[in-house]
Amino acid sequence: MPSAANFNGAVAFFHPGIEFMTLIDRLKHVKRRLLGGVGRASNRKLFLFQTPRHGVDDLADIASFGDEPGTILDVGANIGQSALRFRLAFPKARIISLEPVSGTFSELQRRTADLDVDCRRLALGPEAGRATIYLTELSVTNSLKRPAAEELRGAEEIEVETLDGFVVRNGLEAIDLLKIDAEGFDLDVIRSGARTLAAGRVRFILVEVGFNPGDPRHPLFDDMRAELTPHGFRLLGFYEQNLEWSGEPRLRYANALFCRDAAVLAAERDRQARLCA
After folding, report:
1. Which SUPFAM superfamilies does this one have (predicted)?
2. For site-directed labelling of 143, which of 8, 76, 77, 203 has its Cα 20 to 30 A away?
C-alpha cells in the first residue's frame, strides 16, 4: 500500500520501496528521483496535491459551499465585532444584529452605521417578556446569568423574545447563518427556536461552546451537539480555540460551526417513519 506524508498542507503519496523523507526542502529531490529515471525508482510515481485549508477561518469555510448567505442573524452582537466580519465576507447579505444592553447597543449602531446592518435592541431566550441582564466590567461578558458578586457592576431590564417568535414576527423564511454568543444562554436560544430548526429554516449555526463542566459561561459542546443533531446538524469545525485560563493544557471554549445536512435529516426521518409503521 502507498504511504502518505503531509508537507505543510501538501500531501505526498509514496509507493512501497521508496525512501520516506520528511524535510520539505528535499521534496523536489525525491520527485526528481522518482520521475527522473534514477535506479529502481525510474518507474515509480509521486502524486502531489494540495489539501484545502479547513478549520482556520469560519466564514471562509461557509463561503466554500458556494452560495453567499442571504440572511445572517447575529444574536449577542455586542459592539458589532461579528457584524463587521460578516459584512466584509458577505457584501450582499442581510445582517440582523441583536444586542439588548442600551449602552452597548448605541455603540453597535455607531460602529455599523455605514454597513447596512439592521440593529435591534433585543435578546433571545426561552420565553418572551422582560428580564434582567447583569452587567460586568467587560460588555462582552454581560449575561442573563447572574455572575459572581465581585464581577457584578450593575443590572438592566431588557426585552426578550424567543427565536421562533422573532422569525415569525419578522417574516424570515430562512436564516442562512445563525450566530449565537449569549454568555451561557446559548442553549436556551437554540431551544427557543425548536420549530424554526425543525422546519429546516437554518443552514449554519456558529455558537460558542465549552469543554469544562465547571464553566457557567459556555454550554458544553456535548449538550449543544445533542440538541442540534436531531435537527440534522453536523459539526463542520472549531474556531478561535481557547485553553484554560489557568494555563492547563486543556481546551476551555471555542466557536463551533454546525451545518444542516438535509440529506442526513431526510434519511433519519425515513428511518423513524419505518420504525413507526
Report:
1. S-adenosyl-L-methionine-dependent methyltransferases
2. 203
Domains of the chain by range and CATH? 3-50 (no CATH), 58-268 (3.40.50.150)
Strands (E), 121-219: 123-124, 129-136, 152-161, 175-180, 202-210
DSSP letter (8 states) at residue 246: T
Record the cell numbers describing residue 90, joined without a space. 458577505
pTM across the whole model: 0.76
Q: What is the dihedral of CA 159, 133, 108, 128, to 10 degrees?
A: -20
Tens digit of each residue's pLDDT (9 = 90 or more) over 165-211: 999 999 999 999 999 998 888 999 999 999 999 999 999 999 999 99
Query: Own/partner pairs for 262-265, CB < 8 Å, 24+ apart?
Result: 262/200, 262/232, 264/232, 264/234, 265/200, 265/231, 265/232
Which stretches does DSSP call E strand in the chain? 3-7, 10-14, 47-50, 71-75, 94-98, 117-120, 123-124, 129-136, 152-161, 175-180, 202-210, 233-243, 251-260
